[in-house]
Specification:
By secondary structure, the chain is mostly helical. It has helices at about 1-30, 35-60, 60-65, 70-75, 75-90, 100-105, 110-120, 125-130, 150-190, 200-225, 230-250, 280-285, 295-310, 320-330, 335-345, 350-365, 375-380, 385-395, 400-405. Keywords: DNA-binding, Membrane, Transcription, Transcription regulation, Transmembrane, Transmembrane helix.
């Protein structure tokens, strides 16, 4: 019965690997989405597919007959984290770029892992089996009892517990860094765009959080339980990676439609999140402590900003950006951003959507217009029904339907 289950599991691994190779080919050849970022995603799905082939060989007992399979496919764990992290970096970058020397260092542990592991290929198969753990080794201080040299015993130890701990730590750290980067990016786009539904990458952030959660559970089961739960969690992680790949194909280039001269949200646009010790006012004050715009000038600027936005009804433009507003005012974008932050306590996104909400409120109460909710949303400058409901509830405190019901009694 167990042999049947093992065979079935090996077949499932091969089927999943085939799907992974297909997805890798799609990512490689597709012209959709962010091509540069998808290169990293392509390599990631390829590595996970190769991992499935390795699992299938191990489950079917082929690794014991041909340890070269495990030796060739083993060094991949240290590439998972860097590829996910660099995918997030590239996806939020304003223009495609070559891999910098600093970024190349992310792959150094993986390359070292390859050098150490593939050096075993010159050894006899039974020696490879001992070193890579297919046959258990008791580290009793005696090398001769295993027929291994001391240097080979050291390599065996490095490729066993030591490598496992480092690999677990590497993936967890890079997943954490990726989530942190996306969180900073989310803050940045709120200060620069009035419509973010297509560029907020919330899907990716949720996927990474799920992946990190499942991975931590996998570490626990791998360390303590070691059973079928290990395979269940492993398949869950693979499912999320493949889902990331297919979703990555659909994600449009974030900055493709923007003017090349338009500045990109940078780290300087990011403000620290308020804590128990720091209020929002303190955060804004700290952010602009060295700015050339003083409080008096900031107050004057917000009056000019409001005048332009209200008279020209700029909020009705769904794709309005901070740079476009600054251009109309003949002001540097960071001056406009500072005035909005300091004088209203809002970011650019909420500032513009508050005007859109006011316009929607008027349209909802216009009996002659008799517009549907989605028509009101579009007429007020929103790009989708979901964005409209979210903004309306935030600024009006109720849903559009509740607001209409309360005021048309």
């Amino acid at each position: 019965m167990m042999d049947l289950l093992q065979s079935a599991l090996a077949v499932l691994y091969i089927i999943a690997a085939s799907q992974g190779f297909f997805l890798t080919l799609l990512l490689y050849r597709s012209k959709l989405g962010d091509h540069q970022a998808n290169r990293y995603l392509c390599l990631l799905t390829l590595l996970f597919s190769l991992a499935l082939v390795d699992y299938a060989a191990d489950t079917a007992g082929l690794s014991e007959q041909w340890p070269v399979i495990t030796t060739l496919l083993w060094p991949k764990e240290f590439f998972y984290g860097p590829l996910i992290f660099l995918y997030c970096i590239e996806l939020t970058r304003p223009s495609p770029s070559q891999l910098s020397r600093r970024q190349q260092l992310h792959f150094l542990p993986g390359l070292l892992h390859i050098v150490v592991t593939w050096s075993l290929l010159v050894l006899p198969q039974d020696t490879q089996q001992l070193i890579i753990g297919l046959d258990p080794i008791v580290f009793d201080g005696s090398a001769n009892s295993h027929g291994l040299s001391y240097s080979q015993l050291v390599i065996a130890w490095l490729l066993d517990d030591f490598e496992t701990v480092l690999a677990f730590a590497s993936i967890a750290i890079y997943l954490g860094l990726s989530i942190w980067h996306l969180k900073r990016y989310s803050i940045s786009i709120l200060n620069n765009y009035s419509e973010i539904e297509q560029i907020n990458l919330s899907w990716l952030k949720r996927l990474l959080i799920s992946l990190l959660t499942i991975y931590l559970l996998y570490v626990v089961t791998e360390t303590l339980l070691r059973g079928w739960m290990e395979h269940v969690l492993g398949f869950s992680m693979l499912l999320l990676i493949y889902l990331m790949g297919y979703r990555g194909l659909q994600q449009p280039e974030i900055f493709k439609a923007r003017n090349p001269s338009e500045p990109v949200p940078a780290s300087s646009d990011l403000q620290p999140e308020p804590t128990e010790e720091t209020t929002p006012a303190m955060v804004v004050e700290s952010k602009y402590a060295k700015s050339a715009v003083d409080a008096e000038m900031s107050g004057q600027l917000i009056r000019e900003i409001r005048q332009q936005v209200e008279q020209r009804k700029l909020y009705l433009e769904p794709q309005l950006t901070l740079t476009e507003l600054a251009y109309l005012l003949s002001l540097p974008p960071h001056y406009v951003s500072q005035a909005i932050n300091e004088q209203t306590g809002n970011n650019f996104f909420d500032f513009i959507n508050s005007y859109r909400t006011q316009a929607a409120q008027a349209l909802l109460l216009d009996k002659e217009a008799a517009l549907t909710v989605i028509e009101v949303a579009m007429a007020a400058g929103f790009n989708s029904k979901s964005a409209f409901y979210t903004a309306f509830k935030k600024h009006a405190g109720v849903t559009p339907s509740q607001y209409k019901k309360e005021h048309l009694k």
